[in-house]
Amino acid sequence: KAGVTQTPRYLIKTRGQQVTLSCSPISGHRSVSWYQQTPGQGLQFLFEYFSETQRNKGNFPGRFSGRQFSNSRSEMNVSTLELGDSALYLCASSLSSTPDTQYFGPGTRLTVL
Amino acid sequence: AQSVAQPEDQVNVAEGNPLTVKCTYSVSGNPYLFWYVQYPNRGLQFLLKYITGDNLVKGSYGFEAEFNKSQTSFHLKKPSALVSDSALYFCAVRALTGGGNKLTFGTGTQLKVEL
Known about the structure:
The complex is a heterodimer. Chain A is mainly beta.
């Protein structure tokens, strides 16, 4: 089975712009979670989607949003980018939304200038 | 609220020696515990997990972890370290009850295995 794929792998944006990141889960997986990884804050949970519904949300401002499509693919959007949004954004998928192993993609490295 | 502590930022071991990476956790109710490894410029790679059952969990690449409920610990171990094990290791926890799949991660421990 193919693993979790994320596109693009690298992005450079400027402050004030918006960005959309994409995640394709492992085939058959219905839950997709997003995490932000930075040197200062470590790994922080952004949100989780299951069957196109947001199940959990972390402590991030409303500029961070996401959605999930009927094929379980997910996108996250960050509007009005700030320098502090520079991070590795990781997507993880699992079979369901009950306790289950999450498998991570390679991440999208976002740099905000 | 759930939390994870990894008290060591870095662990250095010689190749062939046993290694231990420490993790303690705090969660309401029974825990669901994971170890992941991250190589440079890569995502997280699943190593092993504990849900219930035997306190000693065996995982990928010869790694194992011991769950200790009284000490709320879940230390990662390997009997004989390899240079290729050098990477960043994360412990994670979520509660068994409650909806969703939110994982809370520790700050990570950099493992360096030297010849």
